[in-house]
């Protein structure tokens, strides 16, 4: 699990994990399949780790944070 951005005022952290069991799956927003040296890589799952409760996972798998933000209409961490 990787911490991407912490918002201390909203008391949550944007996190991402690699979905190792889904290599080669395309991004929910753009359809891109991440590759390294022509080898398909697994996509990322993003979520909000709130101080007061469990992690709230976003629906879908994404190739990058930029695609997540586009998919969410610019409200990925809020």
Please explain how this structure is put together:
The structure is a single chain. A four-stranded antiparallel beta sheet has the order 1-2-5-6, with no helix packed on it. Strands 3-4 form a two-stranded antiparallel ribbon. It has one helix at 65-71; strands at residues 2-7, 12-18, 35-36, 39-40, 44-50, 55-57. 15% of the residues are buried. The mean pLDDT is 88. The chain has 78 residues and is mainly beta. Strand 1 (2-7) and strand 2 form a beta hairpin. It has one domain (2-71). It has one helix and six strands.
Globally, the shape reads elongated
Beta-strand percentage range = 25-35%
- Rg, nearest Å: 13 Å
Tell me the strand order in the biggest sheet: 1-2-5-6
The biggest beta sheet is recorded as: 4 strands, antiparallel
Annotation, overall tally of beta strands? 6
The overall pLDDT, averaged over residues, is: 88
H/E element string?
Answer: EEEEEEH
Structure classification: mainly beta
Helix content: under 10%
Tally of alpha and pi helices: 1
Low-confidence stretches: none
Q: What's the domain count?
A: 1
Quote the distance from N terminus to C terminus: 19 Å
Quick structural overview:
Helices cover 9% and strands 35% of the residues.
Question: What is the fold's blueprint, element by element?
Answer:
Layout: E1 2-7, E2 12-18, E3 35-36, E4 39-40, E5 44-50, E6 55-57, H1 65-71
Antiparallel strand pairs: 1-2, 2-5, 3-4, 5-6
Features:
1 helix; four-stranded antiparallel beta sheet; 78 residues; two-stranded antiparallel sheet
